[in-house]
């Protein structure tokens, strides 16, 4: 069987805090052999052009260092100040500095140069996320003929947002150099199809660029999931129970509403707290009866728009506290730090409402983890944004428009008042969907589609067909 090479900006770290993706791909890598390739996390003055291998908890990981300037242009610049806001339809928060493109491209070239000597002809390469869109082009420019797949972990933008990205035409041409492009949701595939079918010429160049040919690239939705049964077990583990006991002591029987998100403007955190404020303002029954816990570990905090989101959230939480808190009751707790999966699983299980209301999101795995962690005899209610990819598979969540804080406030009321039989019926349907879309099947289905019948001598089915037709 051919080896699998996984490529992403960050590589998995040591220890039990590894995310679902790392766990799933670790299993797949153990079955097929191969390694994970990415940035080491180190910034140095003169990076070596060769990758260093290390064993991380039994996983073979090859890493390269980057210079501070390259990393800034590639990560904080082009990836997270241009691609991230545009792909999330937040052009108002984008900083369009086209010169960052050079650093972005240069890092992709460095990845390709360091990866190429490690490749065998029949290796299957799976590239992850928007930091590495040009990688297939750069590998192919160096002669790689391997099957290369790309998976986008964030939403695909509408054509208008795409046109706002400097060099978008080249980036789309880069996508066309992959054999398979995987997206989170059907919504993303539709946006991609809309672009590819109605490409308009580049506005700046004197001679319009030719449209991009996607005829050799398959594009499909592969909705990522988690391992809901693993979360079910984790939610009653000793570590989870410890966290539950701690939280129960401070709740004094109040219902817990829980949000867990990176501190990112795409997550709709200010709108969420505002919706909670409306719940408390509109229905006095809930005062002293509910508590909102928002866990929001800081993220990309060198970028101004992230600092501003953090400030806005501080202000709104302060306002709600000032308006409703009493000497012996606080309406909310806002924690700016990360917790390990066992603690989170315990909190998910304890929460009567899982509040997942991004303004726009890829799949959103918190929704999956919340569902997996519920007590089947007394499950909580998932209040979910219709703009998260998860909304396509979780029909029995309470779906909301996160921009409409009245609607989200009303959804909270409905979730808190929901009778047990309805909670159980909804949860059973959600759990069945989470199991159908589990992360193991996700990685297997992507790889099977990318390399359905790799012959083992470096020749893929597509090559065989091509050779046959020119023979
Ligand atoms: O959601 C997209 C994503 O790139 C995830 O894959 C990742 O866990 C998250 O954003 C955090 O991103 P960063 O590497 O910038 O901290």
For this structure, the CATH topology of the largest domain is Rossmann fold
Number of helices: 17
* CATH homologous group name of the largest domain: Glycogen Phosphorylase B
Uncertain stretches of 5 or more adjacent residues: 203-208, 455-471
Going by CATH, the architecture of the largest domain would be 3-Layer(aba) Sandwich
**Gross geometry:** globular
Query: How do the strands of the widest beta sheet line up side by side?
Result: 3-4-2-1-5-6-7-8
Tell me the number of structural domains. 2
Given the helix and strand composition, which structural class is it?
alpha/beta
Characterize the biggest β-sheet. 8 strands, mixed
Features:
17 helices; disordered C terminus; alpha/beta; 8-stranded mixed sheet; 6-stranded parallel sheet; globular; 471 residues; single chain; binds 6-O-phosphono-beta-D-fructofuranose; Rossmann fold; 16% strand
Describe this entry's structure for a reader:
- It is a single chain.
- Helix 3 packs across helix 4, helix 8 packs across helix 13 and helix 10 packs parallel to helix 11.
- The strands form 2 sheets. An 8-stranded mixed β-sheet has the order 3-4-2-1-5-6-7-8, with helices on both faces. Strands 11-10-9-12-13-14 form a 6-stranded parallel β-sheet, with helices on both faces.
- The radius of gyration is 23 Å and the shape is globular.
- With 471 residues, it is of the alpha/beta class.
- It starts with a strand and ends with a helix.
- It is built from 17 helices and 14 strands.
- The model is unreliable at 203-208 and 455-471 (pLDDT under 50).
- The protein has 2 domains: 4-224 and 441-470, Glycogen Phosphorylase B (Rossmann fold), CATH 3.40.50; 228-436, Rossmann fold (3-Layer(aba) Sandwich), CATH 3.40.50.
- The structure holds 6-O-phosphono-beta-D-fructofuranose.
- 6-O-phosphono-beta-D-fructofuranose (F6P) is lined by residues 10, 129, 153-154, 299-300, 362.
């Amino acid at each position: 069987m051919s080896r699998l090479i996984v490529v992403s900006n960050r590589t998995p770290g040591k220890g039990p805090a590894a995310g679902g993706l790392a766990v799933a791909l670790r299993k797949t890598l153990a079955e097929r052999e191969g390694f994970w390739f990415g940035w080491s996390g180190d910034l140095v003055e003169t990076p070596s052009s060769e990758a260093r291998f290390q064993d991380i908890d039994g996983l073979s990981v090859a890493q390269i260092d980057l210079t501070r300037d390259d990393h800034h242009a590639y990560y904080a610049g082009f990836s997270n100040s241009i691609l991230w806001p545009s792909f999330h339809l937040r052009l108002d928060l984008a900083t369009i500095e086209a010169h960052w493109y050079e650093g972005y491209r240069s890092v992709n070239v460095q990845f390709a140069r360091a990866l190429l000597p490690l490749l065998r002809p029949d290796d299957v390469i799976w590239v992850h996320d928007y930091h590495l869109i040009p990688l297939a082009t750069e590998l192919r420019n160096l002669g790689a003929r391997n099957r290369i797949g790309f998976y986008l972990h964030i939403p695909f933008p509408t054509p208008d947002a795409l046109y706002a990205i400097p060099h978008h035409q080249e980036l789309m041409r880069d996508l066309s150099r992959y054999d398979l492009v995987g997206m989170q949701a059907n919504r993303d595939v539709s946006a991609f199809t809309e672009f590819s079918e109605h490409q308009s010429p580049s506005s700046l160049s004197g001679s319009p660029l030719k449209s991009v040919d996607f005829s050799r690239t398959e594009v499909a939705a592969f909705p990522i999931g988690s391992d809901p049964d693993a979360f079910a077990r984790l939610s009653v583990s000793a570590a989870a129970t410890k966290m539950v006991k701690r939280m129960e002591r401070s709740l004094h029987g109040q219902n817990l509403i829980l949000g867990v998100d990176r501190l990112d403007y795409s997550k709709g955190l200010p709108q969420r707290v505002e919706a909670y404020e409306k719940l408390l303002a509109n229905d006095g029954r809930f005062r002293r009866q509910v508590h909102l816990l928002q866990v929001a570990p800081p993220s990309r905090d060198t970028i101004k728009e992230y600092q501003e989101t953090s400030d806005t959230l501080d202000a709104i939480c302060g306002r709600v506290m000032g308006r409703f808190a009493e000497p012996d009751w606080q309406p909310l707790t806002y924690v700016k730090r990360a917790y390990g999966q066992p603690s989170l699983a315990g909190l998910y299980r304890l929460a009567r409402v899982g509040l997942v209301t991004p303004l726009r999101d890829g799949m959103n795995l918190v929704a999956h983890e919340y569902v997996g962690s519920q007590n089947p005899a007394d499950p909580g209610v998932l209040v979910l944004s219709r703009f998260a990819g998860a909304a396509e598979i979780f029909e029995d969540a309470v779906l909301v428009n996160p921009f409409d804080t009245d609607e989200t406030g009303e959804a909270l009321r409905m979730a808190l008042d929901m009778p047990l039989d309805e909670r159980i019926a909804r949860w059973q349907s959600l759990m069945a969907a989470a199991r159908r879309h589990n992360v193991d099947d996700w990685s297997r289905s992507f790889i099977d589609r990318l390399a359905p019948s790799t012959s083992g001598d470096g020749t893929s089915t597509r090559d065989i067909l091509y050779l046959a037709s020119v023979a």
